[in-house]
Amino acid sequence: MVQDNKITNHIHHVHIFASDLNKSLQFYEGNFGGRVILDAEFAGARNVFMRVGNGRLHFYDHRRSILTEGISTISAFKQTI
Q1: CA distance 13 to 31
Q2: 3-state secondary structure of 40
Q3: Cys-Cys with 21: which of 1, 14, 15, 61 at CB 3.0–4.6 Å?
Q4: How far apart are CA 66 and CA 1, in angstroms?
Q5: Domains within the chain, CATH numbers bracketed
Q6: Where does residue 62 rank: exposed (0-12), middle (13-18), buried (19+ CB within 10 A)?
Q7: Is the torsion defined by CA of 12, 17, 18, 21 positive or negative?
Q8: Which residues are within 8 A (CB) of 32 and not within 5 positions of it... i.e. 6 or more apart?
Q9: What DSSP element (H or E) covers 72?
Q10: Contact status, residue 24 vs residue 14, Cβ threshold 8 Å
């Protein structure tokens, strides 16, 4: 994106796995002025897209951790950095 002959960058969107989706939405709406632009079910889970500034947050409703298999790998990797 170019504005006033300067190149500016921003993050288009990030993915957030939420164990309490409604609480997460309230937090981002109340603290960052987030606005829900899509709330739908995809792949068996509620997915919510929220606009915050120029970027987007993509929330997944996961009441249980679906990433537990990789946590030990990530922890081991972080210790080597």
Answers
A1: 18
A2: strand
A3: 61
A4: 35
A5: 10-80 (3.10.180.10)
A6: middle
A7: positive
A8: 52, 53
A9: helix 68-80
A10: no
Structure tokens at 22: 């409604």
pTM, to two decimals: 0.64
Asked whether 7 and 50 are in contact (CB, 8 A), the reply is no
User: Is the pLDDT reported for residue 37 higher than 90?
Assistant: yes
Q: Are 13 and 55 in contact (CB under 8 A)?
A: yes
- What is the pLDDT, as a whole number, of residue 14? 87
Structure tokens at 68: 């537990």
Q: How many helices (H) and strands (E) does the chain have?
A: 2, 6
